[in-house]
């Protein structure tokens, strides 16, 4: 899914910054097709000469789409994997094979159960081994790879620590299959699969860097923004055991296949004008000037001709005639993104405003993946839209029920229980819920019944936040999208019923303006799936008359903010509005004081939101624009089917 246009200098690794050949695709879907094609061509070429094809395989989020494509090719195109022998990179330790989190389960679930591979050709490190058995197994794993003739093609993902397999920083280039300890960041990243940190194993068996380096060909795949910094470090940085993936720079037949988001920090994407001749458009000019200002610590209007010349940007001087002219063009462009009228300013000239003046008032739909993302990311704008007289609807896509601690629910039930006792109408129901919570605490998991109450609790919190901002309850929609309702951190794939629910709401409200979370940091995270659901709904309604006159604005989720150069609308937030926003966030009591899913950031949600909005205002200020307390920013999305 590409939601903003990225300018990336052309050429496959053919620039002075990249030390590994990199192929960039617009989307992961396109990329995996190319990788699957290469695998299948190799398998078939080997089959034609009655040879086995030895594949090294990875697990994790990155190869899931690749395996789906291989399964599709087997089913629809009759591709056979009978001659394939596989060696998986790694397995957690300890880890029973049947556990849903095991790589054994993963590989069977995503690939092996759906193709015609001979089960005896499958090799996956054994997470059930103990003590000396582990070393013996590891030595034998190496021998088995050798006996199979070595790995023809090794598929890799990359961890944010720069690990390949589970070769964490500090691994030797010659390391072999062995027991390893997982890095702290790797453990944090695995929380999404295990539910909580204490359930994530701290050890694993992994093929070594040396084992991987011996593969005849290596393809490393990476998707999403979260991987962008480590991709840059690996592709452009120095070879170092502190980023084990950099050892791949020394492999003679390696290829990185990544999507545009994962490529976004490579020089060719971040500073494309340093790599090749570029076709300048407004956004790219803005980006170049902002980068220059940031580097020189100067506001836009103070940048001089020589600054452009010294930084590979003489092109812009030539195009505009002088530094002053470039500066003024970019200054005005940035200035026009700022608007205190997110729903458009009625009865006024809107030719340079981000939103159109008419119609007024507008019907506005604010999609929020979880019940608090709207207030965290755009609470100031949400309150303003209400205050400026628009018909604002808050739409909560998922229940967010797994993010409620049992203890918190218990406390709420206790309050209700005590109330009912005091009022002289003791209610057995509350007692029963409390008992069920006790039972669940001792047995683990999330029972359906308790999840139902957690859903209700989060709905009540969202209603309180909406009430606080002036959104009436009849304009608050809880979609409870089914894909989310698995009761565990692993979600179901999006289905038609998820899309239909959104389509029905869109057609019922016929909004003039839509806000949605444009979060791509985690390609399989709930935010990204929720955005995908909206995009698929847009595919259905895109010919409707109302949709043709609907503006779609994307905010970022709790984790990241849009880069200033991408922003189409920046809504200033005053100190008092920031405090309203904070209070709206507080209404989500179950997420305060250390939420169940904090991500990498130890700060409370309101703190992150404020820091982030203040930081954006500061960036604008440093560029020489007006000084605001805080700013919420949006990117306009134009749908193309
Ligand atoms: C998996 C493996 C790891 C992953 C890496 C990226 O077998 O060895 O190196 O490839 O942690 O994981 P995802 O793809 O989940 O981001």
From TrEMBL:
Residues 347-356 have a biased composition (Basic and acidic residues). One of its GO terms (biological process) is N-acetylglucosamine catabolic process. It is an enzyme of class 3 (hydrolase). Keywords: Carbohydrate metabolism, Hydrolase. Residues 339-358 are annotated as: Disordered. The active site is at 90 (proton acceptor), 163 (proton acceptor), 168 (for ring-opening step). It catalyses: alpha-D-glucosamine 6-phosphate + H2O = beta-D-fructose 6-phosphate + NH4(+). Pathway: Amino-sugar metabolism; N-acetylneuraminate degradation; D-fructose 6-phosphate from N-acetylneuraminate: step 5/5. GO terms for molecular function: glucosamine-6-phosphate deaminase activity. It comes from the Bacteria. The keyword Hydrolase applies. Residues 27-251 form the Glucosamine/galactosamine-6-phosphate isomerase domain. SUPFAM superfamilies: LmbE-like (SSF102588), NagB/RpiA/CoA transferase-like (SSF100950). InterPro entries: Glc/Gal-6P_isomerase, GlcN6P_deaminase-like, GlcNAc_PI_deacetylase-related, Glucosamine6P_isomerase, LmbE-like_dom_sf, NagB/RpiA_transferase-like. Its EC number is 3.5.99.6. Catalyzes the reversible isomerization-deamination of glucosamine 6-phosphate (GlcN6P) to form fructose 6-phosphate (Fru6P) and ammonium ion. Belongs to the glucosamine/galactosamine-6-phosphate isomerase family. NagB subfamily. This is Glucosamine-6-phosphate deaminase. It comes from Butyricimonas faecalis. The gene is nagB.
């Amino acid at each position: 899914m590409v939601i903003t246009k990225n300018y990336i200098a052309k050429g496959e690794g053919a620039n002075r910054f990249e030390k590994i050949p990199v192929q960039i695709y617009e989307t992961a879907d396109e990329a995996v097709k190319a990788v699957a094609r290469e695998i299948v061509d190799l398998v078939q070429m080997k089959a034609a000469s009655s040879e086995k094809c030895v594949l090294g395989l990875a697990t994790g989020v990155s190869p899931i789409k690749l395996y789906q494509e291989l399964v599709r090719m087997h089913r629809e195109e009759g591709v056979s994997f009978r001659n394939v022998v596989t060696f998986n990179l790694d397995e957690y330790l300890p880890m029973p094979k049947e556990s849903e989190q095991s790589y054994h389960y993963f590989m069977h679930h995503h690939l092996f159960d759906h193709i015609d591979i001979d089960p005896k050709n499958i090799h996956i490190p054994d997470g059930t081994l103990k003590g000396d058995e582990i070393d013996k197994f590891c030595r034998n794993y190496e021998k088995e790879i050798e006996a199979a003739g070595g790995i023809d093609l090794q598929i890799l993902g990359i961890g944010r620590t720069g690990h390949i397999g589970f070769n964490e920083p500090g691994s030797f280039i010659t390391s072999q299959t062995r027991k390893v300890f997982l890095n702290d960041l790797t453990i944090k990243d695995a929380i999404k699969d295990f539910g909580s940190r204490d359930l994530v194993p701290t050890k694993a068996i992994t093929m070594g860097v040396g084992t991987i380096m011996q593969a005849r060909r290596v393809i490393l795949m990476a998707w999403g923004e979260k991987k962008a910094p480590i991709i840059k470090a690996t592709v452009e940085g120095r070879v170092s055991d502190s980023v084990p993936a950099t050892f791949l720079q020394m492999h003679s037949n390696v290829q990185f296949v990544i999507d545009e988001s994962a490529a976004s920090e490579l020089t060719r994407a971040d500073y494309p004008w340093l790599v090749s001749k570029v076709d300048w458009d407004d956004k790219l000019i803005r980006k170049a000037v902002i980068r220059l200002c940031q580097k020189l610590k100067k506001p836009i209007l103070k940048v001089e001709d020589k600054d452009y010349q010294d930084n590979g940007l003489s092109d812009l001087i030539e195009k505009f005639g002088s530094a002053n002219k470039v500066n003024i063009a970019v200054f005005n462009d940035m200035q026009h993104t700022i608007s205190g009228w997110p729903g458009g300013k009625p009865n006024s000239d809107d030719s340079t405003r981000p939103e159109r003046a008419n119609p007024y008032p507008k019907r506005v739909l604010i999609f929020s993946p979880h019940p608090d993302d709207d207030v965290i990311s755009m609470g100031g704008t949400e309150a303003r839209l209400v205050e400026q007289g628009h018909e604002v609807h808050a739409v909560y896509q998922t229940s967010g029920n797994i993010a409620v601690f049992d203890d918190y629910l218990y406390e709420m039930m206790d309050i209700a229980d005590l109330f009912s006792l005091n009022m002289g109408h003791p209610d057995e129901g509350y007692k029963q819920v409390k008992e069920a919570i006790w039972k669940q605490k001792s047995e683990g998991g999330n029972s359906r019944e308790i999840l139902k109450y957690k859903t209700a609790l989060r709905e009540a919190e969202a209603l309180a936040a909406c009430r606080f901002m002036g959104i009436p309850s009849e304009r608050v929609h809880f979609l409870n999208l089914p894909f989310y309702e698995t009761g565990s951190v692993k979600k179901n794939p999006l289905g038609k019923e998820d899309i239909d629910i959104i389509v029905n709401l869109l057609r019922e409200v016929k909004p003039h303006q839509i806000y949605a979370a444009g979060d791509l940091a985690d390609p399989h995270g709930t935010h990204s799936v929720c955005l995908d659901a909206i995009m698929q709904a847009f595919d259905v309604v895109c010919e409707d008359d109302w949709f043709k006159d609907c503006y779609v604005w994307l905010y970022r989720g709790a984790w990241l903010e849009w880069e200033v150069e991408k922003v189409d609308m920046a809504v200033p937030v005053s100190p008092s509005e920031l405090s309203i926003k904070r209070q709206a966030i507080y209404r989500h009591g179950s997420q305060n004081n250390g939420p169940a899913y904090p991500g990498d950031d130890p700060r409370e949600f309101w703190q992150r939101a404020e820091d982030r909005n203040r930081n954006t205002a500061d960036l604008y200020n440093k560029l020489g624009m007006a000084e605001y307390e805080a700013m919420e920013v949006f990117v306009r999305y134009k749908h193309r089917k």
